[in-house]
Amino acid sequence: MRNPGVKGPLAPGGDWVREKAGSGSVSITIVRVPNSDDVTYEIVNFIDGARTVSEIRDAVSAEFEPLELGAVAEYLDLLAKVGAVSFKR
Question: What pTM, to 2 d.p., does this model score?
Answer without folding.
Answer: 0.93
